[in-house]
Amino acid sequence: MWMICKKEWQQFFGSLTGYLAIIVFLLLNGLLLFVFPDYNLLDFGYASLGSFFNLAPFILLFLVPTVTMRSLSDEYKSGTFEILKTLPLKPFDIVVGKFFGALLIVAAALVPTIIYAVSLQQLSSVGGIDVGATIGSYIGLILLGAVYTAVGICASSFTNNTVVAFIAGAFVCFILYSGFDAVSKLPLFKTGLDYYIEMLGINFHYRSISRGVVELRDVIYFLGLISLLLLITKRNLVKR
């Protein structure tokens, strides 16, 4: 499993595309949070990373599918999947190895963003940032990134076309994050069902953890969704 994980890491950073994806992610975050007026953290008058944690899920919609689009589709296209099948690995080992390899890349992209929190803490004259809420938000962001990664690998397992895998992964991630919120706001569901429909979406549980309170139901939701997606991916591999 760890051999697959290492291969995924080396494959992503073995080309200029991998470095460019990380650089663009960090550059876009930096511009939005410290340059553009609508989201500039320095204009708020108080130390908060709220804008970053609100924007990050949408920026990750493009970063994560970029990381995962080649995970399995490239193996199908190049024929190396046949070699993978000859290794003493179970299909689920391959899936989990691919998942953790891609998740490590996503985590590596998020680690430099900690400098935003450190900068605000140093610039704040009174109080500083809410450390508990910030830690909770980072936990939520990692879990969110894990779900996006599972979605991306699952999408990649359906096709040998990396572009299709990217578009499908980004679309499904967007629906899981924002789709249920949008449906819950329809007048048809204003009778009390709106709350339960909203609970089906990622955003509801991400916001809950971002408040600094890590509840068991939110963790179970994320882990359950990841497990379901990885099981679907494993089923696709077995079929092939």
From TrEMBL:
InterPro entries: ABC-2_transporter_component (IPR051449), ABC2_TM (IPR013525). Its main location: membrane. It is a multi-pass membrane protein. Keywords: Cell membrane, Membrane, Transmembrane, Transmembrane helix. It comes from the Bacteria. The chain crosses the membrane at residues 12-34, 46-67, 99-119, 131-151, 163-180, 219-237. Residues 51-177 form the ABC-2 type transporter transmembrane domain. Pfam families: ABC2_membrane_3 (PF12698). It is found in: Cell membrane. PANTHER family: MEMBRANE COMPONENT OF ABC TRANSPORTER YHHJ-RELATED (PTHR30294), MULTIDRUG ABC TRANSPORTER PERMEASE YBHS-RELATED (PTHR30294:SF29). This is ABC transporter permease subunit. It comes from Parasediminibacterium paludis.
